[in-house]
Design goal:
By secondary structure, the protein is α/β, with parallel strands linked by helices. The protein has four domains: about 55 residues, no CATH class; about 190 residues, no CATH class; about 70 residues, no CATH class; about 50 residues, no CATH class. The protein is built from 16 helices and eight strands. A six-stranded mixed β-sheet has the order 2-1-8-6-7-3, with helices on both faces. This is IrrE N-terminal-like domain-containing protein.
């Protein structure tokens, strides 16, 4: 009768994986087993290690290292919450998402190089000491927007404006990905309290990732423009600034100001405020309908112009926070059409390049399935859904 072989996992490795992993997902029995492994009272089998690896959401191979490593993605060194640098370790959901996007970026970079394409000259083209007006104008040029782009069609609606700006960014060569979960695992939801978006800088394949779990739509739109500004500045960043009024780092203040100006130019705001009638709340609602921004953004601009008081601004923020909490409680189902959801997550131009690479024999179907999170059937169906 064959018996399972115990494996000696050093206690320092067990301590490390517990520290970086999602320890809350372990049962009391599993924690007790790990204590026995640490003391040497018993040894884990390969099956035991695989189970703990899955529960902690750390790579299986980590248990076989001789020494702990720092697997924190470099972009996490640029994390801001409320525009403050933080030391809290990133979640495995964030780490895995960053590494998945980095792998896509590496593929896209090599694909452009293999085709003898030039790097994008707009990446890092703007100096960090530029003023917000200069950065805003640079964004308009790269995205090929006029100053009043939000007046076209339904672009004053944040959802519509997001699609519009995302398309312009992708046309410029910036990869834009969006999801509210880790890979295809609907049980691993991304936490907007940890991050809203991030930007990964590369002169051949600049990439922006938007956390779909962030609400409302105007928040995702602001995050998109904020991260596009970082692309032009040439700085990686992981973003979770919950209030554009509290930015403390110069770069964050610059990106916030440029994003706000792109979405709601100051002169247009002042004209709209003056033309609106009624009290402050009525004016905020009226102005909000003209620009793809949140109530809080309108209220903050009004506060800066001293059109409203601090108390009125705080009241708007409170109502917005309550609304977001209500939306979060309602949006508990993954729901929706699989292919529509899948299509919204992926950069369509990057998908076209992957398909072309497969057709040319440079990328295997297996690799294409891995990068797109599909299989033989769903990959072909996805292509049908995104064809223009």
């Amino acid at each position: 009768m064959q018996t399972s072989v115990g494996i000696n996992v050093p206690s320092r490795i067990l301590d490390w994986v517990l520290n970086i992993g999602n320890k809350d997902r372990l049962t009391d029995a599993q924690l007790s087993n790990i204590r026995e492994w640490r003391s040497g009272a018993s040894l884990p089998t390969v099956k035991d290690i695989r189970t703990i690896s899955d529960r902690l959401q750390v790579p299986f191979g980590y248990f076989f290292l001789s020494q702990p490593i720092d697997d924190t993605p470099p972009v996490c060194a640029h994390r801001t919450i409320g525009s403050r640098d933080i030391d809290r370790k990133p979640s495995r959901d964030l780490v895995d998402t960053v590494y998945a996007m980095s792998a896509l970026q590496d593929w896209a970079r090599q694909d452009r190089i293999d085709h003898d394409e030039e790097p994008f000259d707009f990446v890092g083209s703007v100096a960090v000491d530029v003023d917000s007006a200069g950065l805003t104008e640079a964004l308009r040029q790269v995205l090929r927007l006029d100053e009043h782009w939000y007046r076209d069609g339904a672009n004053s609606n944040p959802d519509t404006a997001f699609v519009y700006l995302r398309d312009h960014a992708e046309q410029a060569g910036i990869i834009v990905m969006m999801s509210g979960i880790v890979g295809e695992n609907v049980r691993r939801r991304l936490d907007p309290e940890e991050f809203r978006a991030f930007a990964l800088i590369d002169e051949y394949a600049p990439l922006v990732f938007i956390n779909r779990a962030d609400e409302p739509a105007s928040a995702r739109l602001f995050s998109l423009v904020h991260e596009l500004a970082h692309i032009l500045l040439g700085e990686d960043e992981l973003y979770n600034d919950k209030s554009v009024s509290v930015a403390v780092t110069p770069v964050e203040r610059l990106c916030n100001a440029a994003a706000t100006a792109l979405l709601m130019p100051d002169e247009d705001f002042s004209m709209a405020w003056g033309a609106a009638g009624g009290d402050a709340d009525e004016r905020i609602r009226a102005v909000r309908k003209l620009f793809p921004v949140s109530w809080v953004t309108v209220a903050l601009r009004a506060l800066h112009h001293r059109y409203i008081s601090e108390e009125q601004y705080d009241a708007v923020c409170k109502r917005a926070k309550e609304w977001t909490a209500t939306q979060k409680s309602r949006n508990v189902s993954s729901g929706g059409n699989y292919y529509a959801t899948k299509s919204s997550r992926f950069d369509h131009r990057l998908l076209d390049r992957i398909v072309a690479s497969v057709a040319e024999g440079r990328t295997s179907y297996t690799e294409a399935y891995r990068m797109t999170g599909t299989n033989r059937r769903t990959f072909q169906e996805l292509l049908k859904r995104v064809e223009p």
